[in-house]
Specification:
Blueprint: H1 3-6, H2 10-24, H3 43-53, H4 60-68, H5 75-96, E1 109-112, H6 119-130, E2 134-138, H7 153-162, H8 167-170, E3 174-178, H9 197-208, E4 211-213, H10 220-233, E5 240-242, E6 247-252, H11 257-268, H12 289-295, H13 299-303, E7 307-310, H14 316-325, H15 330-339, E8 344-347, H16 349-362, H17 367-383, E9 391-394, H18 396-400, H19 406-436, E10 439-442, H20 444-457, H21 461-468, H22 472-483, E11 487-490, H23 492-496, H24 498-514
Length: 528
Amino acid sequence: MTIQSSLPSPEEFRRQMEEMLRRAFPGGPPTAGAPEAEPEAGGAAAAEQAASEFNFTLKPREVKAYLDRFVIKQDEAKKVLSVALCDHYNHVRLALQGRAHPNYTKQNIILLGPTGVGKTYLIRCAAELIGVPFVKADATKFSETGYVGGDVEDMVRELLRRADGDVRRAQYGIIYIDEIDKIASVPTATGRDVSGRGVQTNLLKLMEETEVPARSPQDIAGQIQAMMELTRHGRRSASTINTKHILFIVSGAFPGLDTIIKRRLREATIGFAAGVAVKDEDPFTQVTTRDFVEYGFEPEFIGRLPVRVVCQPLEVEDLFNILKNSEGSIIRQYEQDFGAYGIEVLFQEDGLRRIAELAAEEKTGARGLMTVCERTFRNFKFELPSLPIRRLVVTRELVDHPVVDPELLARAQAEQEHAMLRQVVQEFARRFQESFKMTLEFTPAAIEALIAEARAQNVPVRDLCATKFKDFQFGLKLIATNTGQTRFTLDVPEIKDPQKTLSDWVVASYRQTTGESTPPPDQPAPQT
């Protein structure tokens, strides 16, 4: 007997599984395929509980302000998206309270724009702000039901998993489908279009309102889990998920759609204006339903996506601002990567701008930043952890010539450390001025002398300054009272013995008040 003939058929396997479960759970759940019980306590009480769990109070301007922290540019897209999100979730809130408009049309969204401009990032950040579960899927993996490929209903089930099994919370989540342009029907296609028109038809039901089984009929593991829940808790979880309040957002680059739009706009010109070129602006901003239908989408499908958001390509300045100002900047990742080895990486502005310039040449939007950074820092990540280098300064030269030269890096590290120590002295003076309303000005020579002394004593320069000028403010206040002077300059002679210097200054201030002669040259008066 061959191995293949010894294996049970699918029907036999199912019967064996059901028999095993009946023996494991006597008096338990019905066999696979039988209807599941509805969850306990529904109706008004469940609606009231759901309403209390979802308290949406955000305004469009607040949503946009939050998105501005993470996504650079796309101001118009962020405005349109903020309004659509607020409208949708205000409707959800009213619906949970039983006060929604009966003929409300769900504001599903279609995002248009080239790759890497922040479409996915926008939606993910918005979902985090609102506090709803979020699922991202790729349209290319789906096929019409009954064919090899993913089932569109799997997205809703994944939403339930992201909501930790909470059906009420999953039912007002966000489903984001990328590369939606890939399911446009090809006009010349023959035969069954299982990945285009069929997928559009299946998505239609989800985007409007339908009941999706919480577990796929083919998911044996899910059915076993349901039976375990029944044994453990005495009841089953909800069997279906309603998609009425799930917000659907789709996006794509739509290559070729701009050509369709431009052709339509040219055809619209009549009379003496015929043949005049279309205005030099992004054609996506003038897209209509007719253009989407010609591109290969069903009118009913596009009709379920009433909100259209256009994202603009990113220029060098935009990429530079992403690196420098975005809270999600990729340089935070590299700071963390090098920091794991005790290496501090410092990005200078010219280095960031060069990374942005090279990324713009990649023509992949913000994704080009990762490409350039990985190419630039690959060797440094490999070599530096084994070298006695604890600081990497990223300049334009380093980005253009990412060569690991230990001697050069050590010299650059020493120079950078020295510059940082100078900044520490200047920061001490700034804080002194903020705290006591009097200004200490250290000459460059005085700063160098303080750094040399700190190194000789092997103490931090900040601690040295705090010790040398401890209680300095009391003597300066006396001088300010006597003379009105609030600005004091410290050179090398003054910092060698600051307490003697302060004493001499105080004495000199009293002499000025009483009209006595000025002090001898070896005891300088307070400088004005």
